[in-house]
Write a structure and sequence with these properties.
alpha/beta, 5 helices, 5 strands
């Protein structure tokens, strides 16, 4: 985030945190899910959940927001996502939206603006950058997040979780 100079770097070294994130949407169920893995100092915490009547992009953002809510001190945060929406939003679009009073360059409404505002608020405490990875490829942590997001989606619908999502032989 280019606006990160506002974060106080004068204190001791900021912890480095990595957040892998993914969102999903299951049209047949009408539900979306999110999954995240947050790592710091060799420890990992997993997050997942889901909601009825939401968009995939909203779930992509919640996959970023949920772990950020757990941070209790300023951190250097690297978000790794297969969503260009998330990566471009954090690295490029966010400051333009703020300068444009939370509107797109063409004056249009920003989708998921409340979620984007929450992410922006986190940039006032943390140094946040985002990195894109190709989804459904060979990135293990991204694959785990995808599974967590799908599980969140099925659980929010009250549907049975497909066996392939819970099989111990998956990885």
């Amino acid at each position: 985030m280019t606006d990160a100079q506002e974060v106080d770097l004068s204190s001791s070294v900021m912890p480095s945190v990595t957040i892998y994130s993914d969102g999903s949407y299951k049209p047949a169920l009408g539900t979306g899910g999110y999954g995240s893995i947050m790592t710091c100092n060799g420890y990992s915490k997993f997050f997942y959940g889901g909601f009825v009547g939401v968009s995939n992009n909203a779930m992509e953002l919640l996959a970023v927001i949920e772990p950020l809510r757990c941070l209790d001190r300023p951190c250097r945060v690297t978000i790794i996502s297969d969503s260009q929406y998330v990566v471009n939003g954090i690295n490029s679009w966010l400051l333009g939206w703020i300068a444009n009073d939370w509107r797109k360059a063409d004056g249009g409404v920003i989708s998921n603006s409340e979620l984007w505002k929450e992410i922006y608020n986190f940039t006032q405490t943390h140094l946040i950058s985002a990195v894109w990875v190709k989804g459904h490829s060979d990135n293990f942590s991204n694959a785990v997040c995808d599974h967590l997001a799908c599980i969140g989606s099925y659980k929010s619908a009250g549907a049975a979780i497909p066996q392939h999502l819970i099989s111990a032989n998956r990885w």
